[in-house]
Design a protein that fits this description.
Rossmann fold; 2 domains; oxidoreductase; EC 1.1.1.306; Quinone Oxidoreductase, Chain A, domain 1; single chain; binds nicotinamide-adenine-dinucleotide; globular; ER; 7-stranded mixed sheet; binds zinc ion; 18 strands; S-(hydroxymethyl)glutathione dehydrogenase [NAD(P)+] activity; alpha/beta
Amino acid sequence: MAQEVRGVIAPGKGEPVRVETIVVPDPGPGEAVVRIQACGVCHTDLHYKQGGISDDFPFLLGHEAAGVVESVGAGVTDVAPGDFVILNWRAVCGNCRACLRGRPWYCFNTHNAEQKMTLTDGTELSPALGIGAFAEKTLVAAGQCTKVDASVAPEVAGLLGCGVMAGIGAAINTGNVGRGDTVAVIGCGGVGDAAIAGADLAGAAKIIAVDLDDRKLAKAREMGATHTVNSKECDPVEAIRELTGGFGADVVIEAVGRPETYKQAFYARDLAGTVVLVGVPTPEMKLELPLLDVFGRGGSLKSSWYGDCLPSRDFPMLIDLHLQGRLPLDKFVTETIRLSDVEKAFERMHHGDVLRSVVVL
Ligand SMILES: NC(=O)c1ccc[n+]([C@@H]2O[C@H](COP(=O)([O-])OP(=O)(O)OC[C@H]3O[C@@H](n4cnc5c(N)ncnc54)[C@H](O)[C@@H]3O)[C@@H](O)[C@H]2O)c1
Ligand SMILES: [Zn+2]
Ligand SMILES: [Zn+2]
């Protein structure tokens, strides 16, 4: 029997989001229905609402979530009803070229539910990142459910489902930050702060936080930054060089997604250092750099999608570290809100007032 629950819909380009009744089918083969307990508000949800990702309105928003598996379809063996899970948007297929080469974090055939959730009039919904978790319940592919220790608070656990995992992974997976490294992070929102926490976890000797907003820099210190630079007041490239003996940082993580901050990252790294782009640019942005500088500075320039994470490997490990008091995931939750508050949360995000607003159900 399909069920009717409440969910947050983006009805059309730029229109305010609203709470609607949605119809969630029973799970088919390989699918699961999850009762959502918490779902963070991510920048990408706002991009969907604004039509920046695709035109497949109406969207069922929300994708940074944790909850309890309610029911599973035929053939599902990895999760069972009652399991506490974080939802992921990288349910690796096991069969694509990336998976077969042993690099499942690059999987390009990730699974989503086959059946559609709908409005009560039958209109099909497009779930954000194949999840759609600003809802009391959602339908996903079973592989999108990653079981973790159930003693963690759902509003904290859900954050690993997107932005916080992207940031931590940018540092520990893509950037491969190691003991004694110097690290600079440009842009200290949820993603940048998570990169700071990840660099701290990996044993970085110096972590330099760069932002335009002093409130963000104060928070970055709480996350593990050892130095802060307000790039409205000084040249961040000079400041990072000064703080690293004139060399630049071993790993520079760009967590804004703009050409000017990417250039700062490029010039603020040590000659053999690594630049990681985790901020997401828009289609019209262009980067211009002297090719000789690209050649003349060795090292590597990398991008990081979802922190190059492997949910089955990274989610349970990071939750365990959090429960041991070694990863302050709880500090990312600025406020908990209701389903009906998502539109307001977008405004607060736009004004830079929050790291994360999290809907609790
Ligand atoms: N790669 C991925 O898989 C992935 C996943 C989630 C989010 N993201 C992207 O990461 C980026 C950051 O996301 P977020 O949730 O932290 O956003 P956010 O808006 O919370 O944070 C952005 C931060 O950058 C700062 N900033 C803006 N312009 C700056 C500049 N010129 N110099 C220095 N700092 C500047 C802002 O003050 C803010 O603190 C976004 O582009 C988002 O789309 C990427
Ligand atoms: Zn694959
Ligand atoms: Zn997201």
